[in-house]
Amino acid sequence: MVNWRRKKSMGAVCTNPKSMGEQVEEENGRANSSPDENKNVPGDLRYSDNGNDIPLIPDDNDEEEMENDAIAARETVQKEIEDHRRRAAYTKSVFHHAQTDRDTVNSTRSLYDSDVIYLQQHGRVYVGDYYMPIDEEELDRLRIIHQIYLQIFDNQLTTVPLKSPTRILDIGTGAGDWAMGMGDLWPSAEIIGTDIAKVQPTAVPFNVFFEIDDAEEEGGWTWPANEFDLVHLRNMAGAFSDWDHIYSEAFIHLKPGGWIEIMDFDDHAAFLTFFDKDSPMPALLHALGEAARIAGRPRGIAHLQPEKLKNLGFVDVEVKEFGIPMGPWPDDKTQKTIGRLWLVSMLSALEASTLRLLTQALGWEEEEVRRICVSSGEEMRRVSLDVERARGLKTVARVLVGRKPGWEVDADADANGDADGDGESVVTETRTINGDGNIKLNGE
Q: Which of 26, 49, 311, 353 is the most buried (most CB within 10 A)?
């Protein structure tokens, strides 16, 4: 069987911006060279390439354990990547051709890689006007975060009930770890991961496809209506200017009974109680929020309000919360490891999330941003590693889910795959909800 590929597919994926259509541009003109590949090696989670930066992992006992945990996490990620590549008979390059005219005509309005402008600014690589970098350093951080999420979600990739889904959409797929995991979990389903940049692996499960696509493109998504069993988004705070548009399009393109799941975190109010009011951390987070507002893509968790989904007609809307400890203060060994890794990832995120926003939206100088990131990072590390002071310090991950009205959810549906392989559907057509909202029983 030929695996179909949408038009304007991503083709072979590469993280070297020089190969991305030769379109790397400097902030003040065109660049003729790519970033130094020896600086941002996988796992090198540092504040920046600046020689004055403070190493992310200090040297005493707790911090050595943090480093060991980070190394172990990177080894886990690398092993997963190698496992995917070893399954050569069952993997493919993400470049494939459409199998039928319908697949081509109804495909999403994805961008060719040549349409995407990759920018080299402040020693990082960006795409379009998105505020977060998309270089290997950031992708490595996202891979570690994926491992953390697996731990806090009890090794589940989703919190919604699924059984034998046929199509799943992952918006803002990033490094592609979640999409590849779902591809392994549901081998009979097609998993589509979209992003504005071409940075995903080329050796992936045979049923996983990556595409360049902008979910906020004018005119709406061009997939057929009632197409997906699950639309998934995570870590997208500050990515969109109009979340109502995203949710409306998801509602249209979900199957009756299909789910949307959005996960983000922003716990500044509780988080900041652990820091002195006159310390640099509150000032940095305030500036970040203001810069995002000026840029037209506010951060925070306003998009996780249940009413956002309910007003569009979603049912079974629910917000779930998961605590992520920061630092080694938990007594539980697993939670302690999670806390160390989360601290590592958040220290790296300070500069990644602020450099572009603060320089462009607020007019800060690059070195000014780096200085406050370093001082904030020192304080975050000091507070987090003080086990008594940091006890209770955590980030709250919020997961918003909702279901498109349609069929009744099977009580035996599973979020983690069809273990018995019986192939039964997640929905049972015992009743349907018509467009007028009336329930119609089967056979009527």
A: 353
CATH numbers and ranges of domains, the chain: 17-441 (3.40.50.150)
What's the chain's Rg over C-alpha atoms? 22
Contact (Cβ atoms closer than 8 angstroms) between residue 231 and residue 400: no
Angle at 316 between CA 313 and CA 320, to 5 degrees: 120
Q: Specify the higher pLDDT residue, 441 or 289.
A: 289
- pLDDT recorded at residue 90: 45
What is the rounded distance in angstroms from the CA atom of residue 403 to the CA atom of residue 162?
11
Q: Which residues contact 3 (CB under 8 A, 6 or more apart)?
A: 92, 96, 99, 206, 207
Buried/exposed 258-290: b ≥16 CB within 10 Å, e otherwise: bbbbbbbbbbbeebeebbeeeebbbebbebbbb
pTM of the model: 0.74
Question: Residue 394 — very low, low, confident or very high, per pLDDT cuts 50/70/90?
Answer: very high
CA 413/CA 277 separation, integer angstroms: 48
HSE (CB half, 13 Å, CA atoms) of 52?
6
CA contacts within 13 A on the Cβ side of 341: 28
